[in-house]
User: Fold this.
Amino acid sequence: MSSPPSKTQSPPAPEAKSPKGKEKSPTPAPTSPVADESLEPGDLLPGAHWGQQELDDDLDSTLGSDAESSTASITSSILQYRNFLGRTYHSDSVTDGEYWGPNDAKANEMLDIIHEVLVKWFDGKLYTAPLKKDIQTAIDIGTGTGVWAIDFADEFPDCVVIGTDISPIQPSWVPPNARFEINDAMKEWAYQDNYFDFIHIRWLNGTIKDWPALYKEAYRCAKPGAWIEHFDANATWHALDGTIPGKSAVSQWGPIWKKLGGYLGTEFDMASSNIMVDGMREAGFTNITSEFHNIPLAPWSTDPKLKELGLYASVAVTHDIEGFLTYLMPTYLGWTQKDITNYSATLRREFREAKIHFGVKWRLVKAQKPLDA
Assistant:
């Protein structure tokens, strides 16, 4: 959905309750170290490297959100979005954690484009788990704009589909078997034991501090025989047929997120880590399978499908580069708005030129709760 946050109307909920968020204080920013311009592979350039450049790109890095009034089930405090450098972010009343992604219209459009890329990658399929057609309950963790949950509800009209998120940015016109709830997945889930037939997680790298705890909650709430499917990516981009120039904006994307992950205590390179496999196994899931996928990030391939996917992916990333950076870069690395604007413009130019044949690694992990659990 590409519309800004709107009211949600939900059918009656099953036996579940929404957790109560706690107020939190802003996280103090660490002092940014002065980076050395003598660059080694994987080193991070200072923001001033980009800020001191004079670029012709006329970029508008701000786009606000115009949220309307809350419904009876969503208190007004949840819609009291934080504003930071012209972007809006989730309310502090929802979560104790620090989520860095904006929730305004431009960010939501990017999420919808990413959804299209990932569905196209799987040839129109929303899932790969061997689901039965008569499943009764499913949940999408970190649903974002809710487009996956809506499409899944259309495909399974007799299944109650719940999408959870920390921002009420989902549309109000949804299938009658779908609804959205404001829940923090990092807290105890507000659902009864053995409830869901399918648990879906997609693209949450860099957002969860304690994945083992989340998988344990998923295991508790899954029915015996239920499936969990998690598809996640690396933040580090890789060249598929050569090297990425050391001081290019593309080469800096990975080091940026590695540095930020150290401050946040989160993992951004989910595909390369074993977090998903190890976490599911530790929680008690069995029949675990894992497979890697390499999705191009620019239309450089000679293969028609990969070329189209690369075009879609490049549109998705370049649509809102500033949205990835606006909160974290000034807060943790001391970048100025000009640094962010110039880096974003340079990255967009490198995407347009398509001279660097690069992509991003994704990992698909599926598992099942034992029937005798």
